[in-house]
Amino acid sequence: MNDTNTETGSGDDAVLLEQIRGAMKKVHEGVGMAFRGQHPKGLGVVHGAFQVHEVPIAYRVGVFAEPKSYATWIRFSIAKEWDDRSPNVRGMAIKLLGVPGEKLAPGEAEATTHDFVLATHPVFFARDAKHFLQFLVMKGAQAKEAGEAKIQGKSPEELAALEMQHLKQLVAAFPVTAKFFTTAESPLTQQYFSQTPYQYGNYVVKYFVQHPDSKDRLVNEMQQRLATSPQAVQFEFGIEVQTNPETMPIDDATQPWNSPERVILAT
Fold it and tell me: Rounded to an integer, what distance in angstroms lies between the CA atom of residue 72 and that of residue 50?
């Protein structure tokens, strides 16, 4: 039981939230078309079912109080980069439909939905709201500096160097960001985390979402994908041409090649 290990609101919360709103406006002002503040690129929105199991008595709380199936919409997303190939943190937003009971969100007491928001990194990069405000203030200052550099007609090389400098500053101030972004083959096979804890009855918990595990999970995934859309499975076959015998030797198989000349020969 964690009933004494809970967070209580303070009079400073409203002030802090207003400061965060102001900092976010400074970060995003002057960027032209406005996008979502977080996870602007959607990878897909899918409709499915959220089947609640018969859980142990101690954990029968809220939507998990009894076995039931909820219709659900799920949005998969990317945090910052528009290129799917770039290292990133990906998101999973789950919206349950037809959920009875009074809701806590301001102005949504009569809502019949329930939301879970998760991401692919197990922890958040900021400790708390005050730490997150520090992040926004830094991002706002960096955005202003980058904007001024563009107005001054800085070269692409100088702008790239400034962007790298800003990245190093963020990593130094928020070390978690150094491991925050990863690559992925599919949003459907990743694990997702709530990152921050939530009250769950008399407990404090973190949520997670994972693909059902099995000793044959790779076999099962391949069978399912090929059975449903075999034409969507493609590979590119190509060659990596040796351009430097010293850095790309033929007599050392442990040495990786990083050839600038890669040619796709077939698909």
Answer: 6
* Helices of type H across the chain: 12-28, 129-151, 156-173, 217-228
- The CA distance from 69 to 48, in Å, is 10
In angstroms, the CA 23 to CA 156 distance is: 27
Nearest to 232 by CA among 188, 181, 182, 192: 188
- Distance of alpha carbon 267 from alpha carbon 264, whole angstroms: 8
pLDDT of residue 146: 87
Convert the pLDDT of each residue in 171-180 to its tens digit.
Answer: 888 888 888 7
Q: What is the pTM of this model?
A: 0.73
Cα(253)–Cα(3) distance, integer angstroms? 58
pLDDT at residue 35 greater than cutoff 70: no
Q: Enumerate domains of the chain plus CATH numbers.
A: 12-215 (2.40.180.10), 220-266 (no CATH)
- Assess whether pLDDT exceeds 60 at residue 2: no
Q: To which residue do tokens 């909820």 refer?
A: 70
